[in-house]
Design brief:
By secondary structure, the protein is α/β, with parallel strands linked by helices. It has 13 helices and twelve strands. The strands form three sheets. Strands 2-8-7-6-5-3-4 form a seven-stranded mixed β-sheet, sandwiched between helices. A three-stranded antiparallel β-sheet has the order 9-10-12. A two-stranded parallel ribbon has the order 1-11. Helix 2 runs parallel beside helix 8, helix 3 packs parallel to helix 4 and helix 9 crosses helix 12. The longest helix has 39 residues. 48% of the residues are buried.
Length: 388
């Protein structure tokens, strides 16, 4: 049976060049980069080069990069660190209803500690009006957090404009850029952000490593306390394999992503056109133009997403129903609900996300399998029969 992976927004396979690059760190280069003896000196360049490469990828300075254990930690560090550092100034945070759970649940945690959080509505395209942010800012506002690209729909939000609003108001601005990295050309300083989160396993590096961009001059409290690592901003011996891999993956993505994304976008277009023609009764969720080149969020009317997902998995096609971070939940997607989409439409939604290893043959196979699975499930659906 053919196996096709269409879940690159959940995670990516480690790039072969990345795996080869970090091989010495799994053997002869094992030192602690903080050690001053020969073993530490052998390891140190991997740490420094990793930081330099990640910084270059987002057009930042190396000293503005804090390595973390992943995107969720980076989000938590940005939000809780700001709340702690600025609690004497105010207790109000602004975010949106469609953020990743790492942002939403961190804001919920702070609400339990006495902070006030405004959750802004997006429109049915998944977009937010920067003027809504402007209107929500008040004198006690200390942070705004809005993602650059949504992990479920792929919709790209107007972060640069929101950042300008925050700068004008003197409010710190954080953006979760985990899903955008490698799919968009990111200029963190140019996007007017003060803090931004990234994750290695979304850009063909291993899991367990992330980064927080902290603009020069921005002071936030530490999330993890202990030693002096990461310029005193994140204690703990560094994940050398992860950091080196993350840096190398960023270097490769900077080299290859323009051409690869053009191919991926073409494949995505082929898949969408074919499904609209062969299946019908499909709704594309999210703005048609302002979206990542690899992502489709489709509602298959009269079909439960879970049944569709299982049927495709049995045929060797891997997709997801919403975010992998919310797997196991029977609730409709909070992202689609936050866009004002009807619950029954939300419950029929699948996320299809392509990557560098997908081919035209994958699309051909999907255009054979998906219509057949959808047709079979609709024949079993009492709602579909009532429609007829």
């Amino acid at each position: 049976m053919r196996r096709v992976y269409f879940d690159y927004n959940a995670t990516t396979p480690t790039h072969p060049e990345v795996a080869l690059f970090v091989k010495p760190l799994l053997g002869e280069v094992f030192g602690n980069p903080s050690s001053i003896h020969w073993s530490g000196r052998e390891a140190r360049p991997y740490l420094d080069d990793g930081r330099r490469r990640v910084a270059a990828f987002i057009k930042a300075d190396p000293e503005e990069i804090v390595f973390t254990a992943g995107g969720s930690e980076a989000d938590s560090h940005a939000i809780i660190g700001t709340a702690s550092a600025l609690s004497g100034k105010g207790n109000h945070i602004i975010t949106t209803k469609v953020e990743h759970p790492a942002v939403l649940n961190t804001c919920g945690y702070l609400e339990g500690k006495g902070f006030s959080v405004t959750y802004l509505q997006v429109d049915r395209r998944g977009l937010i009006d920067p003027d809504d942010v402007r209107r929500a800012i008040r004198k006690e506002t200390i942070l705004v957090s809005v993602m650059l690209a949504n992990n479920e729909t792929g919709v790209v939000l107007p972060v640069e404009e929101i950042g300008a609003v925050c700068r004008e108001a003197g409010v710190l601005f954080h953006s979760d850029m985990v899903q955008a990295a490698g799919k968009l050309d990111i200029d963190a300083p140019g996007l007017n952000v003060d803090l931004a989160s990234f994750s290695g396993h979304k850009v063909y590096a291993p899991k367990g490593v992330g980064a927080l961009y902290v603009r020069k001059g921005v002071e936030i409290d530490n999330l993890i306390h202990g030693g002096h690592q990461e310029g005193g901003r994140r204690a703990g011996t560094e994940n050398m394999v992860g950091i080196a891999a993350f840096g190398k993956a960023c270097e490769i993505m900077a080299r290859d992503m323009t051409g690869e994304n053009a191919t991926i976008e073409r494949l995505r277009g082929r898949l969408l056109r074919g499904l609209l023609e062969k299946v019908g009764d499909i709704r594309l969720n999210g703005d048609e133009e302002r979206r990542l080149p690899n992502t489709l969020n489709l509602s298959f009317e009269f079909i439960e997403a879970e049944s569709m997902l299982i049927g495709l998995d049995l045929a060797g096609i891997a997709v997801s129903a919403g975010s992998a971070c919310s797997s196991g939940s029977t609730e409709p997607s909070h992202v689609l609900l936050g866009m004002g989409i009807e619950p029954e439409v939300c419950q029929s939604a699948l996320r299809i996300s392509l990557g560098r290893e997908n081919t035209d043959e994958d699309i051909d196979y999907a255009l054979d399998v998906i219509p057949a699975v959808a047709s079979r499930l609709r024949e079993m659906s009492p709602f579909s029969r009532k429609k007829g």
